[in-house]
Amino acid sequence: MSNSEQFEKGLQMRRKVLGTEYVDGSIAKADDFMMAFQNITTEWCWGYAWTRPGLDHKTRSMLNLAMLTALSKPVELKLHVKGALANGVTVDEIKEILLHATVYCGIPAGLDAFKAAHEVLKAEGAIPTEK
């Protein structure tokens, strides 16, 4: 099966935001069953939603952080914190997004989001590791 133009656009965008190593690794590890997911997320999420002209990539990253907090998805949030940094979201903006989401989504969801973001921000050298 050849990849569609939408898939190719999505693959390029996905690599730009999440990193080539992560994206190519996810695709390489996918068997026939999981490749269905790789195809749909690359085409629809990254090829359709992320390449639309209505919002810039920084804003899309900010929205993802809030939505992933609301959904209590800290593992996915970690990936998108790294992507948000790549899209120009500052540490202070990430903190404010998570605080705002915590008010609307609840303390348990906010705590998970803060812990996940903190881990990534430390690993990326965006915040000091000592304190």
Q: What is the domain tally?
A: 2
Helical segment count = 7
* Rg calculated over all Cα atoms: 15 Å
Distance between the termini: 52 Å
- Total strands: the figure is 0
What is the H-and-E element order? Answer: HHHHHHH
CATH architecture of the largest domain: Up-down Bundle
The CATH homologous superfamily name of the largest domain equals: AhpD-like
CATH hierarchy class name of the largest domain: Mainly Alpha
* Assembly of the depicted chains: single chain
Sheet-strand content, in percent, reads under 5%
Q: Residue share in helices?
A: over 70%
- The fold-level CATH name of the largest domain is AhpD-like
For the report, how would you describe the main beta sheet?
none
Shape: globular
The structure class reads: mainly alpha
Overall mean confidence score, pLDDT: 95
Task: Note down, in words, how this protein is organized.
The chain has about 130 residues and is an all-alpha fold. The protein has 2 domains: about 5-50, no CATH class; about 55-125, AhpD-like (Up-down Bundle). Helix content is about 75%, strand content about 0%. Helix 4 (about 55-70) runs antiparallel to helix 5 (about 75-85) and helix 5 (about 75-85) packs across helix 7 (about 105-125). The longest helix has 18 residues, at about 30-50. It starts with a helix and ends in an 8-residue tail after the last helix. The mean pLDDT is about 95.
